[in-house]
TrEMBL record:
Keywords: Cell wall biogenesis/degradation, Glycosyltransferase, Golgi apparatus, Transferase. The keyword DNA-binding does not apply. Its EC number is 2.4.1.-. One of its GO terms (molecular function) is polygalacturonate 4-alpha-galacturonosyltransferase activity. InterPro entries: GAUT, Glyco_trans_8, Nucleotide-diphossugar_trans. This is Hexosyltransferase. Its main location: Golgi.
Amino acid sequence: MLVVSLRVSLCLFPKELKNCHKRHGDSDPSKHVFHLSTDKLNFGAVNMWFLLNPPGKATIHVENVDEFKRLNSSYCPVLRQLESAAMKNYYFKADHTTTLSSGASNLKYRNPKYLSMLNHLRFCLPQVYPKLDKILFLDDDIVVQKDLTGLWAVDLHGKVNGAVETCGESFHRFDEYLNFSNPHIARNFDPNACGWAYGMNMFDLKEWKKKDITGICHKWQNMAINEDSTLWELGTLPPGLITFYGLTHPLQKSWHVLGLGYNPSLDRAEIDNAAVAHYNGNMKPWLELAMTKCRGYWTKYIKYVHPHLRSCKLSVSEIPDM
């Protein structure tokens, strides 16, 4: 997870950060703060990467989610669920097919990302960053193509979350993500409400605290656990739709284009014009199954001459000869 505080001209990779500073000379790079949250397995590597590849004068703040002492199973319902015996049995007993769902019929749920607290950390941002009033949240599978400074000036009109809406005439609405056969869901939400995208979000943490957003999220997570029922689809977007229902301000679509990891029909002009390109889906650009027409938006920022990157299996056929 990456969040940014203060007024920054945001770019994702060290090389791009330096170019970004050149383009926006009126911004003070020393006031750019990038907060990266990772787990203990990757904490040392991420820290070392930025020690060896500092992004100019910007500050990189790397944190280990396992050291967030307040985020324990007593405080976070989702952690209690992740630590439950049923969840452990489901994930680590190959022949067990009756816990949580009928095994093979829901193999998607075995994806490790659903077990990671990093994936659920987005619901506890004021607890993780108590001194910040506003942050820009970025997923780890996005590429920032343009300056995002303008997002800090967007008026959220008292809302908590600024996000790009994703609904069309009859798709990506709440009824695709939430279980409206459950009376709690049916009573509280409009099935035709418009969905929005996680991946690049402006969060007003002052309003978040006033409206007790984390408490709203915990209430619904507790309900899902206690009733042992499926209230929403997998992932963090459905509980996000619930948590920020009526509290999300729509951003212009040019800020954030999605689908580079699954949608072959994406228009190149739409990708080129977007400030953020999001590889949501399974076809990540560093994998062989990546879509050819989308991979280049990521590879052009990778410093293949770096010895560590040259030893990684990153689209080897595209790495130039030295």
